[in-house]
Amino acid sequence: MESMGYVYRNTETRPNGLRLYVCAVIGCYATAKQTINGNVTLMKPHTHLTPNRCVEGDNTNAYLIETLAFKAALKAKVNSGYGRLIDIYRSEAIRYPMGAANYPWTTACSLMTRMRRTGFPAQPNTLIELDSLFRNGLLERFCVNGHNMYRGYVASENGKAHLVFACHTLVELVLRLNPTNMYVDQTFRIVPPNPKLVQLITFHFEIEICNFPTIYCFMEDESPSSYRSLICFIKDMVLPGYCPRNIFSDINFNLISPLGYYYPTAYLDCTWFQHNQNLYEQMIKFGYSNLIMNSGIAFRCLKMLMVLPLLPPNKIEVGFEEVKAYASRMQVHMPRIFDYYNWHWLHLIGSNTISVYLKPTRTINNIEVFHKKFNRTFRNMPTVWTFLSGIYNLNSAYAAEADRLCSGGFPTKSFRCQLLYNNSKIKTHTQRLMTGELPIKDFILLCSEVLNGYEEHLRSWTIKMSMNNAFNNAVNGESSDSDVEANYDDFETSDNAVRGNLEQVQQQPPPPSPPPQQQQQQQQYEHPQQQQQQQQYESEDIADIMDHEVDSPASSESNDQPSRIFGYCMVCLTTKRERKYLILPCGHSWICQKCRDKDLTTCPYCREDIKCFIRVLETTV
């Protein structure tokens, strides 16, 4: 057979009509195949040109040679561990343009993924074995800009091992710019089952308007000595000479104590995000998951507890009593979560610590986005190689962002419309609370409606973590106690010890009070300053509130509440309906006409049967 200037001889004919050929020239091992339709495809290239100098045949042979060279280069780069797969493909496509045209990314992705998956060594059983793999140079694939992410092995006093990973590019950026805020996040507990890990700790740094996850710590134990050894290693070996001004961390005294010891000049604080996640985990631990999923009133009580940190410190206890009274009135029985919140958050932690009222960092939206990226990357029960690859891919993206900042570019940041809307609603309700137009009870109810999607995210997140923990316990042969059987032994920490830790880590003196003359001027220009701050709110970032606190009449006395009723619908919480209706016989007000037409049978406030509605014509309701 002759095709495109080359002569072939038949070697095999299959029952489906496929014919296989080899080149008739001695010493050339080119192969081709012919389908039943007569289409001829060159499989292996020729080592010689066509006898009659056929341009089509020579070009087809040259294209195949470059395509095979392109595939070989991709395999070599993947096996040696050079960056992300898409970056490898793009770099080699510049060298082999015709090979990239014949072998596109959609086809090469499967080959490269399979090569990377099968190119790892045997999975280690302990962190010490994983450390030896890095030290022997078998995992050079985890290099970002020519530097391996692995930073070292830390051994605690009790013999437990901990591994530290950090991107060299991001560490240099942190040491050069010296950011003021450091976030220590230990809420991501989806870890590989083998080698056995307890949790992952990440260190984030706020640069410009972005948070860069820079340091990752694999922990085998959560004892105080483990945290102390880990923080000491990070301060001396990873971030020498760096001292943040503010450290935001979870309320874990084993972690807070070494942070306060090694960073004595930093102010430690918690965020709304960590408060809510811890509260939801305890809700599941006490066995109230079915209650909040099946009861809308219990679900609202949970959201009302979550918004308590939005109140001023001197009003949080009053708001807590309002939530308890609301739950009692609605016949929602959750005594254990209320006792836990009162004992743990209000008395041990303190309202001054958990309050985010008028703080510049109310929540950490960037870390929440980081968690979502991790969630999409790992799914359930990841292997250690999948876990390290996910961290590596995320760090490669953040390293590119850091290079953009170093070259004088602007950071990229995405905003979600729902987050912007929720943030504007919270700002509006906070302003009304500051001016005394909104009582504490109504403020809690209105802000709780902002947390619908947020609670769903926490719910799916908690379920996924429980599945991962159960799988890890099954793999490691450990028994896990039921969450419903949790008791108060989990929170046995003496008041004196806890308060002593808080005094050690929060030694920063309060700001000096202004002189009497300055206080009079501040009170004189109080309302214009509030209007100016409200304009500043609209231009700030979604996670930002005001940089300084403003005195207001609402924060002077916690028990002074307006006696008049404020107008919002009890169902949809709107204030823009002209027609308002009272509910009889309970007399609670009010609902709008749109909600009245939904065939309500019970009062949304007291759950009493509705007999009829009466329209309200007074504009003061």
From TrEMBL:
Keywords, alphabetical: Metal-binding, Zinc, Zinc-finger
InterPro entries per the UniProt record, alphabetical: Znf_RING, Znf_RING/FYVE/PHD
Low complexity: compositionally biased ranges: 518-536
Keyword Flavoprotein: no
A Pfam family the protein falls into: zf-C3HC4_3
Residue stretches of biased makeup (Pro residues): 508-517
Chain segments carrying region Disordered: 503-539
Domain RING-type, first and last residues per copy: 569-607
Keyword match Metal-binding: yes
Molecular function via GO: zinc ion binding
Entry protein name: RING-type domain-containing protein
Organism: Aphis gossypii
